Amino acid sequence: MIRTLAVSGYRSLVDLTLELDRLTVVTGPNGSGKSSLYRALRLLAACGSGQVVGALAREGGLGSALWAGTSQAPGPQGRVALRLGFEGDGLGYAVDLGLPQLPGSSPFALDPEIKSETVWSGGPLRAGSVQAQRKGPHLRVRDASGAWRDDPRVLATYESIVDEVADPEGAPEVGLVRRTLRGWRFHDDVRTDAGAPARTPHVGTRTQVLGHDGADLAAALATIIDAGGADLLDAAVDDAFPGSRIRIDAAAGLFTLLLEQPGLRRPVTAAELSDGTLRYLVHVAALLSVRPAGLLVLDEPETGLHPDLASPLGRLVRRASERGQVLVVTHSRPLAEGLADDGAAHVRLTGGGGRETRVLDGREGALDGPAWAWPGR
């Protein structure tokens, strides 16, 4: 379980550390940094597949991701730096990205450079707990005896040790970081418009994890049923739409999602469902996934849903947190309060209007985050 998340130098997240629980709900007014926090989590997850540099470039480069508020905070030793990190279950990782050193005429001028990466074990970062450290193109790892060994590989500025270094001798923690980050899931790309892939029949195969575009929604729900989760699925659907039931038609190998509803003489196909109903079923497939996520991050899951669905959605989220860690970023007061009343950690953000993001305590004052130390470049 991820216990501490740290972000520095990303938009309004000038220097933010959060303590996460099994279930954490994040709230705050518009402009307080909720979306920035979500995007920072996506960037951190992208380190696990070597895509963080490309993801930042698609945002407009490092310059577009830096804080533009009234209290510009410099990076370490005055350098421009975007730093991301996490710690949990005796494992830690931090990455430091900076401005490129390529000539201005380079076609890759928007690509930031990975300046340093650190992997450590045993809780908060300490000098003796570092297991692998990359500075610039050079990597060193601690061997079984505890001594440092230089790795012969020379890393490019866009290559992450998490993705490129498969199994450095003596530092299995690098592989653990990779598996941890690749186990994080985000389902904000699923469309529910009239042309959404989730609305059309598709070739079905066992689908333990809902795809990023939702095209395999029917197969994901069928897999939940096949794996013994029919009762959970029926309960989640009935909770939101009383008397309704999901059915999957698998004629000729094509899977079609059908919703049986009281008062209707025939089931309704996915193509006929309202956007809100389809979106809720996407949440059902994601939260009841046969293969639980290491960390499931939901960004404003209430969007497009009727307010009456806040309570059923909250019960679905709580059930999912019994199988894996869940973080919910939301504007919905009923959803946030319902989750907090049931024991979820509640993180309240403040900021906006040129002010950096801060975490509020119960008295509306700034709250100090958990202990965190950034590695040097």
Automatic annotation (TrEMBL):
It comes from Flavimobilis rhizosphaerae. InterPro entries: ATPase_AAA_core, P-loop_NTPase, RecF-like. Residues 23-334 form the ATPase AAA-type core domain. The keyword Magnesium does not apply. It comes from the Bacteria. This is AAA family ATPase. Keywords: DNA damage, SOS response.
